[in-house]
Amino acid sequence: MSVSLEDWPGRELSDEELDVAYNVRRKAGEEEFARLMTRYRRMSDEAVDGLPGQPGVVYDRTSGEKLDVWGTGGAPRPVFVYLHGGYWRALSRHDSAFMARMLWEQGVATVVPDYTLAPKVTLEEIVRQVRAAVAWVHREGEEHGLDPERIVVGGSSAGGHLTGMLMVDGWQRTFGLPQDVVKAAMPFSGLFDIRPLVRVYVNEWLGLDVKRAAALSPELLPAERRCPAVVAVAEDDGTGFLEQSRRFRRHWGEAAELMVVPERNHFDVVLDLADPRSAVSRALLGLIARTGR
Length: 293
Fold this sequence. Notes:
This protein is an alpha/beta fold. The protein has helices at 15-22, 24-28, 30-48, 100-105, 123-140, 158-167, 171-174, 203-206, 210-215, 239-252, 279-289, and strands spanning 53-58, 66-70, 77-83, 109-113, 146-156, 182-188, 229-236, 256-265. A hairpin with a 7-residue loop joins strand 1 and strand 2 (66-70). The chain is globular and about 55 Å long. It starts with 14 loop residues before the first helix and ends with a helix. The mean pLDDT is 95.
């Protein structure tokens, strides 16, 4: 695939305009951001309290990183692998299980991996780790009550980018996995062409140049097999995230649906996954249902 390294979305914007487009923490305000981060942890703790599962399983010997398995029981269940956000340098699996009880009640298990945060490791290494997590689910999941043939992936913000990196082709061979190991995907407020981040504050801990950013951009990578996807984004999201979600939906073609969630911002849109009646929960459950054999 031929890519012009300098032809990226928003290249005509000033550094200040790019910061407005991608600095969603500033857009939300520090008080609202802190409130929502507290809510992430509280809702996650409440969701997994008393839930059957196996927390703290090492999935990657190289890094020693762990994942939590929630909501198992009986026959192996379809599984939603959720990748947390935090611009690749914050949050953890402990803040990111708020959907686990809702899914358990619907017959679906949840897997929430940690990954080593930047700048301790490169973004390339973070991508390798989340791919290793999916490989673990496929190889070891059945022993933990997971159906390896019904893996759906999703994530928010940086986790949306990592979701995209699981949707593309090529990496599966490295891990000895089938090309269709990911059966469906639901990125929230994702970043699919990360070249603009080379010019914003996020690059303080990513340390990317344009060439590496292009190689880590799902929209620019081969994907002959297009798994079913719902590309979700908040109506009150950052303009950069809104535009990237619209562009990636067009790029993914007929296999994808764009969902712009009204009255939600970059941080609270994904919390709707705790409510089975919400539009995003219904969309996710619809994707999972399509994986049935």
